[in-house]
Please model this.
Amino acid sequence: MATRNYFSYLLNPLDLVRTKKVLQVNPTIAPVRIEPEELKIFVYDYDAASIEVKGLKNVSDCFIYSDSPKATWINVDGLRKADVEIICEHYGIHYLIVEDILSHGQRPKMDELNGIVFCVLSMLYFNEKDSAVETEQISIILGKNFVISFQEDATRDVFNPLRERLKVNNTKVRQQGSDFLFYTLIDLIVDNYFVVMEKLGDKIENLEEDIVRSPNTRSLAKINMLRKEMIVLKRNVGPVRELVSGILRSESELIEERTEKYFKDVYDHIIQANELAENYRDMMMNLHDLYLSNVNLKMNEVMKVMAIVTCLMAPATVIGGIFGMNFEAIPLLHNKWGFFISVGLMLFVPLAMISIFVRRGWFKL
Model:
């Protein structure tokens, strides 16, 4: 029964699908993407004194902002190949960048082509129901006086604090240029990594308590599930350090010197996030060892009890075997007290053994 339960948790079909998603990545295969029926395009055109916020239905409606002297943020929710190509062609974005925007599972990276600074990375979310880390690829393009962001999911992102700040006059983001907006978008994504890791940390702590209290086969299945989530986390967080480092090394005129210190702050945060991910990875390995140790300890306790019972029953077995032999001349065979003497020996010897075991500290009564 226990073996069947173990395999029911460990060989869950949904768990195998998760394994395939986590471990199987082949960048040479053309992505198969289900395109949304419509795009959601929001434009924030602003300076320190004023801001214009518009929701657009057609990609061509955002072309008028390409010559705006103000800083412009164009946020595109949903990816349709034709629309992405139209926007990128109008803003002079290289086709290699278009391919990266439309790719699946792209490794976080930063590129600089034709006077455009481009980065692609993942926004992370934690699914409380499935205890899984979910990813959404986002591409951010920095040009002269504009930032374009492409998201896959139109229902969620981590940019609401930025939208609220943009509505307030004379905030830092309103007073700075498009490079500061570019920094703010990356900073919000990186800061959300800590939110996801905090929730993962809570799951790990709860699992540790369960393993210490009562380890079972379900605990092992939970360990394997969390280890897969740590792989997802590490795969998406680790390369962002190189991405931010590339921005700091960039000599692009689009990033002003006064903004570099903010990217250094993001760099410090991503180093901390990587160290935290490594710590969680070590904790998961320790949990696995703890689980095996507790299982072995429980097995040793069972074997100890069985060995003691066997030792205590051995004298009675020996005495019963001796008096059960088919010989005519057996001591006490015809004595009226023979039975009571043999039973007394069967009781006395185990009690004497228990006394010896207790004095030696082999078990406590």
Q: What stands out?
A: The longest helix spans residues 257-323. The chain has two domains: 2-294, 304-360. The two ends are 32 Å apart (CA to CA).
